[in-house]
Automatic annotation (TrEMBL), chain A:
It comes from the Bacteria. Residues 39-95 form the 4Fe-4S Mo/W bis-MGD-type domain. Residues 780-820 are annotated as: Disordered. This is Molybdopterin dinucleotide binding protein. PANTHER family: NADH-QUINONE OXIDOREDUCTASE SUBUNIT G, RESPIRATORY NITRATE REDUCTASE. Signal peptide: none annotated.
From TrEMBL, chain B:
This is Ferritin-like metal-binding protein YciE. It comes from the Bacteria. It comes from Micromonospora kangleipakensis.
Amino acid sequence: MVDRIADPWGPRTPYGPGDRWPVRVDSFLADGHTEADVQRWVPSASILHSNGDAMDIAVVDDRIVGVRGRAGDRINHGRVDPKDLYGWQANHSPDRLRRPLVREGDRLVETDWDTAMGRIVARSKELLDGPGGWGHFGFYTSGQLFLEEYYTLGVIGKAGLGTPHMDGNTRLCTATAAAALKASFGTDGQPGSYTDVDHCDAIALWGHNVAETQTVLWMRMLDRRRGPNPPAMLAVDPRATPVAREADVHLALRNGTNLALLNGLLRELIRRGWYDEEYVRAHTVGFDELCKVVEDYPVAKVAEICDLPARQIEQAAELLGQSQRLLSTVLQGFYQSNQATAAACQVNNLHLIRGMIGRPGAGIYQMNGQPTAQNNRECGADGDLPGLRNWENPEHVAELARLWNVEVDTIPHWAPPTHAMQIFRYAEQGSIKLLWISATNPAVSLPDLARVRRILTKPELFLVVQDLFLTETAELADVVLPAATWGEKTGTFTSVDRTVHISDKAVDPPGEARPDLDIFLDYARRMDFRDSDGAPLIKWSDPESAFEAWQECSRGRPCDYTAITYERLRAGGIQWPCTEERPDGTERLYTDGVFNTDPDYCESYGHDLATGAELLPDEYRAKEPRGRAFLHATPYQPSPEVPSDDYPLLLTTGRTVYQFHTRTKTGRAPQLAHAAPEAWVELSPADAGPLGVGEGDLVRVESPRGAVRARARICGVRPGVVFLPFHYGYWDAAGPAGPGPGAAGGGRHDRAANELTVTAWDPVSKQPIFKVAAVRVVKEADSGGRPSPAPTVGGSAPPEGSGIPATVGGPAAEAPSRGE
Amino acid sequence: MHLSHYLGLLHKAQARLGDAFTEVGAAHRDEPDVFHTCGRLAAQCREHAEKLAPFARRYAEDAPAEPDRLHSELFSGTRSGGLGLLRDLQDLYLMAAECDICWTVVGQAAYGARDTDLLAVVKSCEQETAIQLKWLRTRMKQAAPQALVVAE
């Protein structure tokens, strides 16, 4: 038995390059159940991070009692993240929403579905009636719905209402991954495969604390590191995360300077001849311009901008330049930071100039943080057209119009789809009057929360929230729709490496809660959306028929699902594209060095990375890409907010291994909640000393936008930088620090990291900048000998010998792990 | 040689565009992308003006008197609201377009004068002006339907 709270990564199973990653089956069954008394195992995969780990749900007497990793699945070989081992228990929480709620004055009261949907439909019809009616609607979804739900909502929004105002919280998490993939390779879609870990000889983690965000992927990396001929490892992160501690070279750079670092590293690689001239010539466009831009970034200058020792930058360049099979992974340290898309593109550039793409071990993971973010991008419930189509390509839009049998101009394609921050801005200005939020919690997860609360509580905004619980956002709604979740509904979703899994319904949802798909279908039916022939616009009625409709939409596009069936998925994950010609799916893209940059096929005609200015179709054609990838280059610019005399420190936010998103589920799983019950503040000893702050002291972190109170953990974050976990909102805040249940707009708000973050975003991906804000720290009270609630596992680990009791789960967290 | 007059025209147009970017950015602070991008582009315009200054001085030495009505006024202050944002961006667009065509004209003159130094400045700056135009166009395209058809 393993206490997977004390040891989130479990026992090692070392292996060598090219070997198969050994199987290790993790499971956790609660309430004294054993595998022998499980009546049904229902196929599923993780919905609490983006790794895509496959598992079976254990059912006894129509109740979920646990989970077990799927030994045969290509992604996890049986392993399960602790969030998944324990997180399912939240399904059973007594505070699940069981009936719809509607606002009566300042209260939400229970009602029936007819009343709740009736109010939404009445308001919708009222708003839709008149020119520009489409513009009053905004939809803000999630990275946790299923493919079928995104696709259905995408058709409702784009062909039913005709609104471009649709996005997901994937904008906060994965928009830059999509933007960088489109910019470099022509379309979205991850080039590599998780099996690249098995083959690589170097791993570079660019702002990616994979140990805490995707623990199973980290297990795979750790198992390679403990085996023969282990891969070298480079970590770029201002914090001493488990990844940074493991790495051979750790660049603890100043937040917001990623692009300067990458420009400098590329310059070193080019100057030292560590690039593949032939590959560059045959398969890329823009090398000369790249050389010209990075030439301005000699190591000494980069060392100064990033505040790093020059020698470390050279070591990193050597590690990258001398590898033969380099695997790169990129996540929020880049995506939620300054010049996000430009920096992520520089990682693509690094692989392109070294010819490190399309073969085993030479992979790039432009990661997702949210588990079903990839589907939101593919299916068009975020700011994209379904099937990775190009909104500027009239033929692509016409294809959709034919598929849906609607007028071309119904489909919004006159400008880029509205991104999340702009949707909230339109709501702030009053032109969006109905905002429908599903499966996400912007009242905790968006930047500058005081502003977000002002927007969501505007009396003239009709707010619909669809979720499992009365979240901080749902408390502010006019109508709350109780949704079913993972284990209570059927659907599919796709992991970072294009592996599609099915998650089958195991049990019924509580009370009158409904699958999100059923809710969207019900809305479409009540709105009576019609196609050009007067037939119902939505022609499907359940998950499988929705999936089949999506297959047709994906046909011939890079994410072609046409040979994937529900039946096949029940046997295990399959990577798209999967067609008659490629019935087993596709492990790696671009194996022939031919990219999706053909003007008639590509998903975007490109942007200027510094301003986000769109390039015109003719300009794109003039580049004559002919299947070659683009090398983009941009000079470094400081972040919109940098430290000042008043706010001398830099704030960065991030995750703990024990929580997901705003803890809607993980905060209700006892083992996870106990492991990381409260927010904390990380300070380096160099900053804590002069502030007179010791371990466990209560401090106030202030930015121009708000203040957060939490206890300090003195640990390995870089000097000048303050870290806050972003998971913590107010629904379970104890005592006077929280607004208490039912407090809508009022109450004290001093717990969520996003009280402090800045409203600013990357010009191309529109991803908010969470990782760079200027703050000051003030001590409020002594610890009284009590250490901070920060876990001793992960990035918040205290220095050795600190005497702080270790984070453990005890008997309640014991979970078996068994080998083959 | 009249080149100095066009250099002066472009120099002033760049300086005014820089100031206008700053003003429009500040007036629309609640649109953070507009605010931040305008700030960056204002700095870019001032750099352009600085790069032109030595050439303006050099060519002024053998220039006849400046003719009348060479300069035009394209910006007279900002507006507020969604419609105001569109109009302000449109002012910037016209000012940037004036710079853009001036770069073309000055570039042609640089060829004629066999001035490779001036030509190098033109070539680098006119690209940045072209991007400014594209950004303004992109942002206006995005804002127009909501501001003109949906907002009350």
